[in-house]
Amino acid sequence: MPRCEQVPPAVDTPVDGVISRMRALDATLHPRDGVAVFNRVYLAVTEAVDRYVDSGRFADPHAAITLDVRFAQRYLEAVEAVAGERRPPACWRPLFQFRRHPGVRPLQFALAGINAHIGHDLALAVVDTCRTLDCAPAELEDEFDAVGDLLVSLEERIREDLMPGPDLLQIADPLTHLLGSWSLERARDATWTAARALWALRGLPDVAEEFTERLDTAVGFAGRMLLTPLPQPSCLP
């Protein structure tokens, strides 16, 4: 794969290292690349989490940092898989497959990436964090909710920033209809349930693996729907 697809190696400081890797990735991608669109959104979220940690807004900063880094690593591993010509998880495949499609709008790319990352990666990151810190999901609920609240607060701004302008109002109705079918709050609630289920299934690895695969497939299907190409303005009557 081209060099521009590669993610720089992590550095020692956890959150700062993640931010550095995403900034470096952003510098190598074309601004209209669907992965670049999501990467910019996720970079803003991660920088906000970092500010929250620095300002003491997390009850348990160590748990918050661990969850944030485990979470980000899932996305960066998907990028690395594509760079190495390996298949990423099913939840990420639609974004990588449609990243250059001219009929997909930036807001669709952003929300499809958020769907993959929240719907699949966050549940696994919660379990990863519990194993690392030797705790149960209930002990991470405050940190999970704080990160989720931050994401929800940013979602409206993301939609406003990336919604087509007046010159594209003729496609706004189908776009609004399409994206109105997905909710970050509902996705976050489902993720918490999935994380608790996976933790409860940790003693049944075969069942946990099947559950994870089905979750991955379902989230990937939702992402494919979010990336439904819309007609170009010149193609409309």
UniProtKB/TrEMBL annotation:
InterPro entries for this protein: DUF5995
A Pfam family: DUF5995
Top-level taxon of origin: Bacteria
Protein name: AcrR family transcriptional regulator
UniProt organism field: Streptomyces africanus
